[in-house]
Specification:
The structure is a homodimer of 194-residue chains. Chain A is mainly alpha-helical. Chain A has eight helices and no strands. In chain A, helix 1 packs across helix 4 and helix 6 packs across helix 7. The longest helix of chain A is centred in the middle third of the chain and has 42 residues. Chains A and B meet through helix 1, helix 5, helix 6, helix 7 and helix 8 of A and helix 1, helix 5, helix 6, helix 7 and helix 8 of B. The structure holds a DNA duplex (30 and 30 nucleotides).
Amino acid sequence: MPRTASFDRNALIAKAREIFWQKGWAGTSMKDLERGLGLHPGSFYAAFGSKDALYELTLDRYVEEGQARLDQLVQTHGALGALKAYLRSVVEDSAMPVRACMLSKTLLELSGQDNQLASRAKQHMATMEARFASLFAQAQDEGDIDKGMSAEKRARRFQSDLMGLRVSAERGDIDALELADEIAADLDRNHFKS
Amino acid sequence: MPRTASFDRNALIAKAREIFWQKGWAGTSMKDLERGLGLHPGSFYAAFGSKDALYELTLDRYVEEGQARLDQLVQTHGALGALKAYLRSVVEDSAMPVRACMLSKTLLELSGQDNQLASRAKQHMATMEARFASLFAQAQDEGDIDKGMSAEKRARRFQSDLMGLRVSAERGDIDALELADEIAADLDRNHFKS
DNA sequence: GGGTTTGTTGAATGATCATTCAAGTATATA
DNA sequence: TATATACTTGAATGATCATTCAACAAACCC
């Protein structure tokens, strides 16, 4: 009976993620989204409910894709290798519209206004941190990293360095790959006792 | 002949810096500024020209005060000691309205929209980086840090770690002081060859 | 103390914001 | 092919945005 929607919802979310990621929450207007997604207001609100709801969808999607990318790196490089490769991948992947982490951008833009999207970003950061921790634990079990410091603490430090790297990369006037390699080198130099 | 202004311009800039720093550029409305500064639109525009012009003033002020704080730490702790103390100070200073660096917040919010304030933030970051580099060079001359890596590269890494630390601190659910101490410890552990 | 100059006030401006909704359109079933 | 059921369209909404400006008030010089 009904008419079928003419758009690919998944593709629209991906496109919206790109727009939000690049221009930020306040920096993205409904007109930007209408133009970028090719959707008129009625269709937009029927499909996604609100600008905020779509933003949240893109945040979730962002983390899912980050996890998937990390999973792939684990399969090809192992736990420690994946962590090191991830550092490079976030600053060299040309498919990414922006260098800085979308979670960081969301947190910094909205935490001062008590926006619930900032809380969501915090949650996702904790999730990523836990994933890193499990990889550090795995690397410790494999003997690639000593057990002198807990996997959780290492993960926290790793994520902090990662976010710093990505803010630095956003500047555009420094060699982010070199910086990524330095951080990666510290994972070996600083953590491995033979 | 003229009537004298009834407000302390310096104090207003300081207050505006607090507001902008906390709520961000788009998150701060003229109504927020009018309320926060106690200024009606006419006076505001007579005094500062525009919201953007005031934001730029506060950015400049922010960096000046950061440099002054760093200078003071150098006098009491020396070059390397100041760098380590600075890490702690940015996350423990309760006078600061926000944990994250205002330059990072500005860069992440506005670089995707080609706003000139983002360029200004980049400039200031480069200035801070140069200051860090001169402190690392001084520490090297004093024998506190080995010369196996250039002061400029160390500075770039230090600033990256610093920004990561401050983004992490913005989350509020982690022990930022512990993280600061870990980064500070690496300055010794990783860089000193006896 | 009058006149001039400057600060202050707050209403008005036009733009843009996210969102709503009624009218129109296309499709799938019957 | 008729009808029901969604999707699509775009004008309208009311709020809020940064900014302007004309009227008013105060302070300093002569």
